[in-house]
Design goal:
Blueprint lengths: L5 E7 L2 E7 L5 H5 L2 E8 L7 E9 L6 E5 L8 E8 L2 E2 L3 E4 L11 E6 L10 H9 L3 E4 L28 H12 L2 H9 L2 E3 L19 H18 L23 E5 L3 E5 L21 E3 L16 H16 L6 E5 L13 E3 L7 H14 L4 E5 L5 E7 L9 E7 L11 H9 L4 E5 L6 E5 L4 E4 L1
Parallel strand pairs: 9-10, 10-11, 13-15, 15-17, 17-19
Antiparallel strand pairs: 1-2, 2-5, 3-4, 3-6, 6-7, 6-8, 9-21, 12-13, 14-16, 18-19, 18-20, 21-22
């Protein structure tokens, strides 16, 4: 029953979320609720059990299990497992965050995104587990909604699932990805904090609009969002209403994680509240790119990537970080994609990332510049390439002050869809880009101390 592995997430000083999802064989089991036992211990042999209890696995939530632990000691590692009848899950390892006033010597954060099944094996997850991070930030595209392409000759592997549109489809897609032993090992290594991008629902969707008629799209989006919650180690506070009264027209995905006084992580949601992509036709399959001068919508100051409420929430968080610099050494903005501009030699502008929302980016830059937290770092994914950038106060003026650093990580398996020659040409055209590579798959590791941030891509 534990064939999809175990996971933990969103560590706090006194607890963490434990997760699993049952795989059940016959129809009667699938229709029934089950009671899962869980244990937390100081050791992998469970000789020193700290807490234990029971949790429901309900068919209405795909037989997923979310246990929100409280009362644990801050800043220490634990082991956990689940049991159903005689069956025992794999053992997971998790940890709590440091106490609020503590200044840890070090924090190792892995950040990753984009793991299309057909495009490659998950060797990166095996390597990440060996790197023993304290925390994994997953920045979007945990699944891809597509069916296997008809021409599978150049694919690393295939699957038999159809294009995902229903709750059953999305549940099956998560089960496919979570069947991979390397991904399971990474989940069992340490706690994760997850956000989403577009492929958890549909390519390039924006808030309440996709490439289908609105009622059909909203039903599909609700199914996809429910499956996301079911399959991720998220707290119940992410639900708009407590189960069973939950409605799947919203999920609270943006949130903060504090790592003592060392780091304050602002985990963002770049999908749920954004404006429709500039100059995109309603029924188009993707956002695409436009000529900057031919798309007046790009310059509309009302356009937003994060939405007004999230912008205000982030501004308040950065102000809080800056007001007590001794309480926050590093302000981390963990979000979906490349934040810094890519000015293409051709003059085209890609509209699904921050380049398509220049006014929203300018407001975020103004927020960082106005509050001036002690050290600001942006993390991203989505583009299937490694980028390292200086973040200037004015994105269009390379002579403006540098106010932050950016590390945008490549994909776990998804192809880049470009060549290094083209990427080199973009880098030459953008002096704030310090490194740009499209030829490598993997993840990023950030080793953070009170004095230094070191990223290994």
């Amino acid at each position: 029953p534990f064939a999809l592995g175990v996971a933990s997430g969103d560590p706090a000083p006194d607890g963490v979320v434990l997760w699993t999802r049952l795989v059940l064989a016959d129809a009667a089991q699938l229709q029934a609720a089950h009671t899962v036992r869980w244990e937390v211990a100081h050791d992998a042999r469970f000789a020193k059990i700290v807490q234990k209890g029971e949790a429901p696995a309900l068919p209405q939530l795909g037989h997923s299990v979310h246990v929100e632990l409280r009362g644990l000691a801050p800043g220490r590692w634990y082991h956990y497992r689940f049991m159903l009848g005689d069956a025992v899950s794999a053992v997971g390892r998790t940890r709590t965050a440091p106490a609020a006033g503590d200044l840890p010597d070090a924090l190792r954060v892995a950040f990753a995104s984009c793991q299309r099944w057909e495009h490659g094996q998950y060797a990166a997850w095996r390597h990440l587990a060996a790197d023993q991070p304290d925390l994994v930030l997953f920045l979007g595209d945990y699944i891809y909604e597509y069916a296997t392409p008809k021409n599978a000759s150049d694919l690393a592997r295939t699957h038999s699932l159809k294009l995902a549109t229903t709750l059953a489809d999305y549940r099956d897609r998560y089960a496919l990805h979570k069947s991979d032993p390397a991904l399971q090992a990474a989940h069992a290594t340490c706690p994760w904090a997850v956000t989403w991008d577009d492929h958890e629902v549909q390519n390039d969707y924006a808030a309440g609009a996709g490439r289908d008629d609105t009622p059909h799209f909203l039903a599909m989006r609700g199914a996809a969002w429910q499956a996301f919650y079911e399959n991720m180690p998220l707290r119940a506070t992410s639900l708009a209403r407590p189960f069973p009264d939950t409605r799947w027209d919203a999920l609270q995905v943006y949130r903060r994680l504090r790592w003592g006084r060392l780091a304050h992580i602002h985990l963002l949601d770049g999908r749920q509240y954004r404006t429709w992509q500039a100059c995109r036709t309603p029924d188009s399959a993707s956002a695409g790119a436009v000529r900057g001068g031919a798309c007046a919508e790009l310059a509309d100051p009302a356009r937003t990537y994060l939405g007004a409420a999230q912008e205000q929430w982030l501004d308040a968080g950065l102000a809080s970080d800056a007001a007590a610099p001794d309480a926050t050494r590093w302000s981390v903005l963990a979000q979906q994609t490349l934040f810094s501009p890519r000015h293409y030699p051709s003059g085209t502008v890609t509209t699904d990332n921050w380049d398509g929302y220049p006014a929203g980016r300018a407001r975020l830059l103004q927020s960082v510049a106005r509050h001036a937290p002690r050290n600001t770092v942006l993390l991203g994914g989505d583009i299937h390439q490694n980028y390292v950038c200086r973040v200037h106060a004015d994105a269009d003026r390379p002579d403006s002050p540098v106010i932050a650093s950016e590390f945008c990580g490549t994909s776990i398996s998804s192809r880049s869809g470009t060549t290094q020659d083209k990427v080199d040409a973009v880098a030459r055209h953008n002096p704030h880009v310090l490194l740009a590579r499209c030829d490598l798959r993997g993840y990023g590791i950030a080793d953070i101390t009170p004095e230094r941030w070191t990223t290994t891509l």
